[in-house]
Amino acid sequence: QVQLVESGGGAVQPGGSLRLSCATSGFTFSSTAMAWYRQVPGKQRELVAAITTGGDTNYSDSVKGRFTIARDNAKNTMYLQMNSLKPEDTAVYYCNERWYGVPIVYWGQGTQVTVSS
What we know:
The protein is an all-beta fold. The chain has strands at about 5, 10, 20-25, 35-40, 45-50, 55-60, 65-70, 75-80, 90-95, 110-115.
């Protein structure tokens, strides 16, 4: 079965940095477009960054220039480097396949990122 294990979250001051990791199994990672999502309680889960099988990337306007998504196909692992963090980045961050036009039915536990002074 698909397994998605996020790690690397924590509490950081504004302007700080974190690197999130996503360890995956149960599907062919190297043939799968991937993405990071985040969710604030009471709000809709949103797409943060996506990466294609070929390494092309896309970012939401709110994180562009501050976050970098990457993948290591040999390790079936994806990363999100988060720099210049802002309080509005506070959320639970999830990794998943980049699904188009359909609801995502499976999620891991996510990793909490808290940015506060």
